[in-house]
Structures are given as C-alpha cells and as structure tokens.
Amino acid sequence: MEYFRKKSVKELVEQSTPLRRSMRTLDLTLLGIGAIIGTGIFVLTGKGALTAGPALSVSFVLAAVCCGFAGLCYAEFASMAPVSGSAYTYSYIAFGELVAFVIGWDLILEYALQAATVSAGWSGYFTKLLQGFGIDLPVQLTAAYGTTPGVTTYFNLPGFVVVLLITWLLSVGINQTRRANDIMVGVKLAVIVLFIVCVVWYVKPSNWQPFSPYGWYSFKQNSTVPMGIIPAASIVFFSFIGFDAVSSSAEETIEPRKTLPRGILLSLAVSTVLYIVMTLIMTGVVKYPEFSAFIDAPVAGVIVKTGMNWLALIVDFGALIGMTTVMLVQLYGQSRICYSMSRDGLFPKFFGEIHPKYRTPVKGTWFFGILTAIAGGFININVLFELVNIGTLSAFIIVAAGIIWMRHKHPEMQRGFKTPGVPFTPLIAIVFCGVLIAGLNWQTWVRFAVWFVLGLAVYFLYGARHSTMNKPSESAITAH
C-alpha cells in the first residue's frame, strides 16, 4: 500500500461537492479578521505584557511576520487548489496521503482546542456583562472544574451554550454564517476603534521604560519560565491563528483563485496594525507589572485605570462579539477539514454528508461542535493553548515546504497568485515558525507527540484502508 500517494489539483476540483458559493473578498477579509482579532486583544495581552513588557508590540510584529510569510504560501496554494481542506489539501498535493492525514489530524486539534479555549474567555466576559446589569450566575456554572484557584467551579455553562448556538448557525447555511460574521466583525472593529480614540490620551511614555525589560529571551531568577520578546511572541501567536481557516472556504467562494489570496493577506494586515496600536496604548496607560492584577481581562483593567467606567460595559460587549467570531471561524474551518477528509475516505462518510437543503456538512458540524462544547464546558484547557500553537506552526512549516516542492516539481501548474521570493520566502517562514516553536515548553511537545501517535494509529487502522486512492488510476500525480 502506497502511503505517500498524491492527488492532482484537477482531480480534487472534479471530486469537490458544489457547496453554495456566495463569499467575496470583503467577506473573506472579515472572516479572517473575525478569526484573528478576539482573544489576542481581550485576553492574551495581559500575559504577554508580563512576559515581554512594553516590547509586547515587537512580539506581535514577530508573530505577524511569521504569519505573513506563511500567509503568502497559503495564498499561492489557495489560488492553485481552490478546494476545501486548507493545509490538509495542500499537503495531499505536495507530499502525499500520510502527511496530509497527519496535518488534517493536527488541524482538527488546533480548531477544536482554540474554540474551546476561547469559550472559557467568552464565559468570563459574559458573566461580567451580566453582573453589570445586576444578574449573577451561580459561580459553580461559570467555569470548568479547577479553572480558578480558591473558587469551586464545575461547569462552564455560558461557554457550552454559545458553542452549541454557533454550531447551529454553521449548520443552517453559509449565507447565514457570512451575514452574522460580517455584522459581528463590524461591531467588534467599532468597539476597538472607540477604545483607541478614548484611551490614547491617557498614555504616559514613561510607562514604556524600560521598553524591553527581559530582552529577547531570558529567565527570571529561580524560575524556569522563559521571559522576553520571543516567548511572548510564542504566546501571542495564538492571536493570529485563524487566517488559515479562510482557505477552508474555497468551495463556498466566488472566484476563489483571486479572492482567497486577497482575503488571507488583507485580514492579516488589518489585524496586525490593530494589535500593535492596542498593545502600545495599553502598556502606555498601565505599567507592565500591574497587568498581574487583571491578567484575565487586561482591556477592562486599562479602562478602570483611566476612570472611564462607562466604556467598560461597551468593551465587555465588544469582547464577547470578538470572541464569538473567533469561535465561529474555528468551528467553520474544523467542519470543512473533516468534510474534506471524509470525502477522501480517510474519515467515515458520516462527516462528509451534505444536507440537501442547507448545502452544509450538518452531521460532521454537529459532531465536532458538541465535542468542542463539552471540552470547553468541563475541561480546564487554559494550559493547552500552547498545544494549539505548536500544531498550527507545524502546519505552517508543511505548507511553506510544499510551496518550494511544488515550484520545483510542478512549475507548469496554474497559479492565480505566486508567493514572491521563492524559495527564500518559504524558508523564512519555516525559520520563524521554528523559532516560535522553540519558545514553547517541553510539556507542550509531549502532548503534541501523544496526539501525533494517536493520529498515526487512526490512519493505519482506518484511513489507509478506506482511502478513495485505493481505487485504481485516481491520481494524476504519482509519488515522487
């Protein structure tokens, strides 16, 4: 049995199921912004500021550059293979079935854990918003067991419910999903701009000194936790995860060879500018060590420092909207990855069945939506966001390497967008991803290895046997 058998772009396009095409460049850009801007601003800036100080803005630039180079590679693949599946499909074309399955398995973990992790942050902001109206939820139902030291909690009810609501929205059609996302991203951006305009006047340049208290990489005395710009970049990289999910919408996009690259790169550019501006303002208003007092809600803490309490309610609402769009795009991307893998026979057909009315993979969407809701409701997964990062960085490395391979082996293939500076641009992406992976702790490597081995077991016990590639003469590109 050939484990590195490949599929041609022509074959993938012919096998694709005609989902409902309705998304244009603006929709894809907003989809990307919806996935990127959320947890990064409203949650991770607190931990990031404690790790890098005011130089957190440099950490965001470093993470953005890494994603930018990877985004250029994604853009070329998206224009070359306009079908669902993102890095999974691209790996199938470049490196063959086994690598594709591993990356698909990796992406399922990435999307599920990110959505579940964000649901925990969403629950915290939702609880605070209700308290502003005099409504108190039972504390035992506001977070997973053991999430908050000294507080007895059992179940994250708000997070559980919001994931199920998003799953329902995804299941009833891409038009409804697109409209909801466009509206929520518009509201989120308006709230962020309002925060910037109102708070920038409270910036004290003296709070930016020292600008980089821990340098690029160092350790505090008697501590094994890495500090500095690179470790902070490894943390806030989580903020940029999501733009790759845009490429999963290929079969629901109008003129995907043109619109997908534009949507990917525009969403990255807009999000990076907003992240840099927000972190400079926040560390300029509040001295970086003080973020330890409100690490879970750093934006709210900055507002309290300014005394503009009226703005806190608006920002809480904006945070809820922001994190909702992140979960929406992650669950959307996850369902499309599973749909693609099912269509190729690597997952059971159940995950790839298209609803005749909604033209969406309803069963697969609900299956993983429920699992994600349960994970966010019961499991303390705050410590696992680095596992999301290492999975995503691994996918980026494979996609970047795939561009070099495809340019060498198949230069004749049609490309609506070409990554500039090949092979140097993909190589830079690989190096940056490697640097960020090096900033993660060893426990993350162990967890990732366990998931990797489990994925190999699923492939050899099921995927390899049921692959559609077992049928003769199905691939136009043979293994090289």
TrEMBL record:
Signal peptide: none annotated. Keywords: Membrane, Transmembrane, Transmembrane helix, Transport. It is a multi-pass membrane protein. One of its GO terms (molecular function) is amino acid transmembrane transporter activity. InterPro entries: AA/rel_permease1 (IPR002293). GO terms for cellular component: membrane. This is Amino acid transporter. It comes from Bifidobacterium psychraerophilum. The lineage of its organism: Bacteria, Bacillati, Actinomycetota, Actinomycetes, Bifidobacteriales.
